[in-house]
Specification:
Layout (H helix, E strand, L loop, with lengths): L9 H11 L4 E6 L2 E6 L5 E4 L8 H8 L4 E16 L5 E6 L9 H5 L11 E16 L10 E17 L19 H8 L3 H13 L3 E7 L2 E6 L1
Parallel strand pairs: 3-4, 4-6
Antiparallel strand pairs: 1-2, 2-3, 4-5, 6-7, 8-9
Helix pairs in contact: 4-5
């Protein structure tokens, strides 16, 4: 088993090999870190399903050497399959949660400056996922002791690529100098206020939007 692959999901492995491509390599040692992959063209590949915070130091080092592509899979739909400890199928259900491109702001919340590096490209992979779970009594209390064993890609939807910071302005449905708040963004984009708040925090850190004052208790923003 290669470095860093012990707890690797099928989804992570599939994307790692797909983006490393023919002639590329995976689990490659680079300085003090291990890259998920390096393509034949020399681009460093990192597949990250959760927060980008753990990537900050690694990506900074890779970006000093060449181009970096962070692959962030987002499950548009998730089907959950549950098995017993012997591997016998018990039941399946569909998760009520549907992923959207706005989920990128959960990943960037603690690493908002990462997209500012000119050598970094962020690619969202929108897909359908099958999550396999085992009823073994060892999982979290939220899942009533059921453990997640693996995640697999069941269908590809689309990819969304952010090559430069301004590409993130696609999330702001307002014209330049048009004022808006968390609530007006949430309403116009049809997202929750919590998602709008996270997005504006990240975009403010990226200097794509700025606060210009308050209306009552609400911050007012404009595009930079």
């Amino acid at each position: 088993m290669s470095i860093g692959t012990k707890n690797e999901s099928s989804l992570h492995r599939t994307l790692k090999y797909q983006y490393s491509g023919p002639g590329g390599k995976t689990e490659a040692a680079v300085g003090d870190f291990v890259a998920d992959g390096i393509s034949a063209s020399g681009e460093y590949i990192e597949v990250q399903t959760g927060s980008f915070a753990p990537l900050i130091k690694k990506v900074k080092e890779f970006a000093s050497l060449g181009k970096v592509r962070i692959i962030h899979p987002i499950a548009v739909t998730k089907r959950i399959e549950v098995y017993d400890e012997k591997g016998a199928f018990l039941y399946r259900r569909k998760s009520p949660r549907k992923g959207t491109p706005w989920d990128i702001f959960d990943a960037l919340l603690h690493a908002p400056e990462l997209p500012l590096n000119k050598h970094v490209t962020i690619e969202l992979v929108m897909l359908d996922v099958t999550e396999k779970r085992i009823k073994d009594g060892k999982g979290s209390w939220r899942r009533r002791g059921i453990s997640v064993k693996d995640r697999e890609m069941s269908a590809f939807r689309e990819k969304i690529i952010f090559k430069k910071p301004k590409d993130f302005l696609r999330f702001i449905p307002f014209k330049k100098n048009e004022e808006f708040t968390v609530s007006s963004l949430a309403k116009k984009a049809e997202i929750t206020a919590d998602t709008a708040r996270k997005a504006l925090y990240v975009l403010t850190k990226m200097k794509l939007v700025k606060r210009i004052g308050k209306i009552r208790r609400a911050w007012v923003y404009v595009r930079e």
